[in-house]
Amino acid sequence: MVDIAPGGQVGIAQIGVTGLAVMGRNLARNFARNGFTVAVHNRSWEKTASLVAEHGDEGTFVPSESVADFVASLERPRKVVVMVKAGAATDAVIDELVPFLEEGDIVVDAGNAHFPDTVRRENALRAKGLHFVGSGVSGGEEGALLGPSIMPGGTRESYESLGPILEKIAAKVDGVPCCTYVGPDGAGHFVKMVHNGIEYADMQLIAEAYDLLKQGLGASASEIGQIFAEWNTGDLESFLIEITADVLQHVDAATGSAFVDIVLDQAEQKGTGRWTVQNGLDLGVPITGIAEATFARALSGGVPQREAARGVLPAATTPWEITDRDAFVEDVRLALYASKVVAYSQGFDQIAAASQQFGWDIDRGAMARIWRGGCIIRARFLNRITEAYERAPQLPLLLADEYFAGAVGNGVAAWRRIVAGAALHGVPTPAFSSSLAYYDGVRAERLPAALIQAQRDFFGAHTYRRTDRDGSFHTLWSGDRTEQDA
């Protein structure tokens, strides 16, 4: 039995966790289960005491009531994992810790921080001789306990000390840890942000597939759940498909109805999707699938607008009459797979653009590899993405990889049938539709952007380039319309 009196032994813990809500609590337990002596601390002593009292038999915990005792109980270089709410709370904890830390110590923010905050904190702590590691952690409560996907940024020096510990507690796929060094300062939290953006797109696409099957077939939630369970045995195998099948087959105990039918159709969000979209705009990267998924959540919560539109806006649709059920189900499956590939392709483009802009040198193949297990978007086809970047580390477009070009190409006809059918019959598919539009846009020989640039030159003298010679030009639209070198 562990002594839970406050005040730990000096310098014996290999890693510390402060912030013992569910995620912090489970991470601490994960460290302890893997043989590490873990210092634990929380603003409320009751949470620290209850962790040790309830789970002290899982390993060695060193509880402390004060920050001073907590830091003193850690061996050097001290490694402190902060698991508190992003924003001001994180800054407050860091400010409490810093006076007790010494040069070379490592502070790890394992929450969902916005990456510019991580860059700021890393700069501030580096000036004090400390290492600050912004680390994405994906997998939710279960992943934190049983093995998450971990995306640490910061200095390479800090990873040399911290990495072996994180790799040991991370999920494993084929014996390979779902953890690797991502890059300097904000790189880890940036990659986690994009991971969450892809998660938004993935969830929206799955929801649209469910709605298509419901509207097109008139199928019950349980029947659709069985379809998803079947899909989870093939190329679509993933954590999100698996839990979708489970949710759809769940029955509400209070009403006897399908659980999904009694849940209010207003999806909430914590902000990482918005951050991803905002950054996509800043970088000029078309992450249209992620954007539409984020806006779809916002639309679902726009109650006044939806109430004003319901029964007022004309539909001009006809009932969807499916003559071949199996063919329709297969079309939805193929469209879902193709749209998912687009979402991941766009996300990896965003990572590449940020890596170049901020000098992070992020290995996209390594990111795909550590997302194969532990995290929310873990999926069978991440193996294929890993292989694609192994073949071509500087691959400019994931969709253009030989495997994905073929896999998506096999489903294009089905994709078009589904998107066209949804439009004709009034079923909203913003993520399916925008993904197909992106696919057609990126593969087009020529885009109408030529007209847009000509318009910009007409009203704003913004210049244009020509297809037949180098240089920039401007036409005197209000004059004799002669062309000038710009």
Q: Could you please describe the fold and organization of this structure?
A:
This protein is an alpha/beta fold and 486 residues long. Helices cover 53% and strands 9% of the residues. A 7-stranded mixed beta sheet has the order 3-2-1-4-5-6-7, with helices on both faces. The protein has a 3-stranded antiparallel beta sheet with strand order 10-11-12. A two-stranded antiparallel sheet has the order 8-9. The longest helix is centred in the last third of the chain and has 34 residues, at 325-358. It is globular and about 80 Å long. The termini are far apart. The mean pLDDT is 95.
* Unreliable runs: none
Spatial order of strands in the largest sheet: 3-2-1-4-5-6-7
Describe the largest sheet: 7 strands, mixed
Strand content: 5-15%
Estimate percent helicity.
Answer: 40-55%
How far the N terminus sits from the C terminus, by CA atoms, comes to 79 Å
